Amino acid sequence: MAYLRYQSQTFRNASDRVRRLFFASNTRNDHNSKRINVDATTGLAIETLLLMPPVAFYFLWLMGNDLHAFRFSDPDTSVLLALAGFVTTIPLVFFNMATQKLSLTVLGIMQYLAPSISFLVGVTIYNEPLGVVQMATFGLIWLALAIFTLDGLFRHKRQSDRLETPVTK
Fold first, then answer.
1. 102-144, pLDDT tens digit by residue?
2. From CA 114, how far away is CA 104, in angstroms rounded?
3. Running DSSP on this structure, what letter comes out for residue 129?
């Protein structure tokens, strides 16, 4: 019961924030500042509300054309499919919370980890073919990332050195 009350409050807050999001006036001169800071749960609630109608229509279309994966004669598979959405939501909520606490530089570097791990799993576990082109591409991506990281470190060091030097007249 407490969960339903919490979700009701979340959706009420979300609807108010959605209204402000779509009808907010731009207060700064640049055109990219139309943002509202929302917590992970509210953001997820807004996304769910916006995506629910098209997904429901698509699901009904699939059922009408007998193309859906839900087989009500096999309840185990249907339950697993329904739980898959919930299971994939948990990491997204944690990711959303982490993005609010990390700098964009760190977050950008971390974005390279998932495809790199997938690449390594594909090559080492699934024995995907690994040619010269794939290795060159992988190497160039990580070389660019290393250059970007070193540039950020040098800029940070220069900025901290400037702040530490005393001002003389």
1. 887 778 777 878 888 888 999 999 999 999 998 998 899 889 8
2. 16
3. -
d(CA 71, CA 75): 7
State in Å, rounded, how far the first CA of the chain is from the last one.
68
- What's the confidence (pLDDT) of residue 162? 81
Q: Among all chains, which residue has been given the structure tokens 């009420």?
A: 12
Q: Which two tokens stand for residue 129?
A: 């073919």
Beta strands per DSSP E along 48-143: none
How far apart, in whole angstroms, are the C-alpha atoms of residue 130 and residue 134?
6
For residue 46, give both structure tokens. Answer: 């807004």
Task: Name 96's Cβ contacts closer than 8 Å, sequence gap at least 6.
Answer: 40, 43, 44
